[in-house]
Design brief:
The complex is a heterodimer of chains A (115) and B (110). Chain A has 115 residues and is mainly β. Chain A contains no helices and eleven strands. Chain B is globular and about 40 Å long. The chains are: A mainly beta (115), B mainly beta (110). Chain A binds chain B through residues 32, 34, 41-46, 49, 91, 93, 97-98, 101-104, 106-109, 111, and chain B through 4, 8, 32, 34, 41-46, 49, 87, 89, 91, 94-98, 100-103.
Chain lengths: 115, 110
């Protein structure tokens, strides 16, 4: 079945560092990918919708200059957290528009910890 | 008001028990409904879609009440492996727009 791969699965870095997370659709083309963030004991919150070949659409309250999204090909979207701070520590999950019965296929998630 | 509301639990039940989770949603125009399962520190995985007529998949039964904007999940004969967080997910427009509840945590005890 369709698989979405996310890398890296775990990042620990110092405050001020920029961190890039990759999301790949492995056996299908994804014109649209989604980036979510989940804080402990909270629901997944959509951050932005990534569209291949065009600018991402950000949800209200998400800073586009801080969370840079690039969707340069039909199988890859990247999220860069620029100048990350401890409050950016969270679980970041990408997904791609589903095929078949699944509405969206989720990546494995990236646990980001900023020290 | 949140798009999707769930009782966070936790629900601690013995093996073999029957447990039910409820969820309410705010947008009456919502079109698609799902239950996802999320294990600790993992991505959510689709458990089942929820249809207007109600649907069953093995030990799992999902029901939808559009008039009350209410969704339920019933798990019969609970197994230890059912321990997870169950997320109620609603889509107003279809697959492009998913709203997640905070999840209900279930622990099945031996």
């Amino acid at each position: 079945g369709a698989v979405v791969s996310q890398h890296p699965s775990r990042v620990i870095c110092k405050s001020g560092t920029s961190v890039k997370i990759e999301c790949r659709s492995l056996d299908f083309q994804a014109t649209t990918m989604f980036w979510y963030r989940q804080f402990p004991k909270q629901s997944l919150m959509l951050m932005a919708t990534s569209n291949e070949g065009s600018k991402a659409t950000y949800e209200q309250g998400v800073e586009k200059d801080k969370f840079l999204i690039n969707h340069a090909s039909l199988t890859l979207s990247t999220l860069t957290v620029t100048s990350a701070h401890p409050e950016d520590s969270s679980f970041y999950i990408c997904s791609a528009h589903g095929t078949g019965k699944e509405p969206q296929h989720f990546g494995d998630g990236t646990r980001l910890s900023i020290l | 008001r949140k798009e999707v509301e769930q009782d966070p639990g936790p629900f601690n039940v013995p093996e073999g028990a029957t447990v039910a989770f409820n969820c309410t949603y705010s947008n009456s125009a919502s079109q698609s409904f799902f239950w996802y399962r999320q294990d600790c520190r993992k991505e959510p995985k689709l458990l089942m879609s929820v249809y207007s007529s109600g649907n069953e998949d093995g030990r799992f039964t999902a029901q939808l009440n559009r008039a009350s904007q209410y969704i339920s999940l019933l798990i019969r004969d609970s197994k230890l492996s059912d321990s997870a967080t169950y997320l109620c997910v609603v889509s107003p427009t279809g697959a492009n727009n998913l709203f997640f509840g905070t999840g209900t945590r279930l622990t099945v005890i031996p």
